[in-house]
From TrEMBL:
Species the sequence originates in: Hoeflea algicola
Reaction(s) the record says it catalyses: a 1,2-diacyl-sn-glycero-3-phosphate + CTP + H(+) = a CDP-1,2-diacyl-sn-glycerol + diphosphate
Pathway: Lipid metabolism; Phospholipid metabolism; CDP-diacylglycerol biosynthesis; CDP-diacylglycerol from sn-glycerol 3-phosphate: step 3/3
Topology versus the membrane: Multi-pass membrane protein
Entries under InterPro entries matching the protein: PC_trans
Keywords: Cell membrane, Lipid biosynthesis, Lipid metabolism, Membrane, Nucleotidyltransferase, Phospholipid biosynthesis, Phospholipid metabolism, Transferase, Transmembrane, Transmembrane helix
Any GO molecular function: nucleotidyltransferase activity
Family: Belongs to the CDS family.
Listed name of the protein: Phosphatidate cytidylyltransferase
Top class in the EC scheme: transferase
Cellular localization per UniProt: Cell membrane
EC code: 2.7.7.41
TM stretches of this protein: 12-41, 61-94, 101-120, 126-150, 171-190
Superkingdom of the organism of origin: Bacteria
């Protein structure tokens, strides 16, 4: 085992333990984690696209929007958090229009802001949120791990050579299969069974996770960056570590909002009720 791979595994295990601890605790602890991820993603994204230099006003608006979103996440006002993201993105796009960097600043706000909001809403406040979040985590982590190792071991045709030359179709297929298996495993552990929606949604989240990985790779290639930052040993930056989780969380957040229940209490309860039969 190479020293780089060993470092990657060790830091990955430590991060997973910290994330799972916050997920188990829930409440203010997980909201703090979601906000921390959001803030670091916005910092890395805006730095990578050089927003502070190319669009300083748009970047300032972006930080105000992210701080407002963080506040609304902490006080459990998701609709206001979403409004802050939308208004901030629109303001940043307009403010940076003349320099041509406004759209990237707006993208940073949406990408980071929705990441924090989606994660906080999926976890929610109760036990159902814990199950829903573990369901998402299991799919994303299984997809990422199997895609990485199977892609390296099997090789074969490239998935998107112009975006990420290291990714292969074999890795993508085995990763998605692992994500589906992990989602079914969590569902069976929670409810001792599983409906037809579980593998379908698990596949959707696995594909979304792989799409998120490709999106981040495209942004880095577009701006000539190898890593989003150097905050995490062996992994690069926070964006490098949560790229798949971000898109999977987006997808789960949409599913939780598109399948309303008559007595719905939130996205977390919705996901648990529809996907895990609770």
């Amino acid at each position: 085992m190479s020293s780089e791979l060993r470092l990657r595994i060790i830091s990955g295990v430590i991060l997973a333990l910290l994330v799972l601890t916050a997920t188990w605790a829930g409440g203010i602890w997980f909201r703090a984690l979601a906000v921390l991820i959001m803030v670091l993603i916005h910092y890395e994204f805006s730095t990578m696209v050089d927003a502070p230099v190319k669009a300083p006003l748009a970047n300032a608006i972006g930080w105000l929007a992210i701080l407002a979103t963080a506040l609304f996440i902490f006080v459990l006002l998701p609709s206001m958090a979403l409004a802050a993201i939308v208004i901030g993105a629109a303001g940043a796009a307009f403010a940076g229009l003349k320099r041509g960097a406004g759209l990237w600043s707006a993208t940073a706000i949406v990408y980071a802001g929705l990441s924090g909001l989606a994660l906080a809403e999926i976890r929610g406040e109760g036990l159902f949120g814990l199950f829903a979040m573990l369901f998402v985590f299991a799919i994303v982590w299984a997809t990422d791990i199997l895609a990485y190792f199977c892609g390296r071991a099997l090789g074969g045709p490239k998935l998107a050579p112009r975006i990420s030359p290291g990714k292969t179709w074999s890795g993508a297929i085995f990763g998605a299969a692992a994500g589906v298996a992990a989602g079914i495993g969590v569902a069976m552990a929670v409810r001792q069974g599983g409906g037809w929606m579980i593998p379908l949604v698990a596949l959707t989240l696995a594909v979304a996770s792989e799409a998120g990985d490709l999106f981040e790779s495209w942004v880095k290639r577009r701006f000539g960056a190898k890593d989003s930052s150097h905050l995490i040993p062996g992994h690069g930056g926070v964006m490098d570590r949560v790229d798949g989780l971000v898109f999977a969380a987006f997808a789960a957040f949409l599913i939780g909002n598109l399948l309303p229940l008559a007595d719905r209490a939130g996205v977390a309860d919705e996901l648990a009720a529809r996907l895990l039969g609770l």
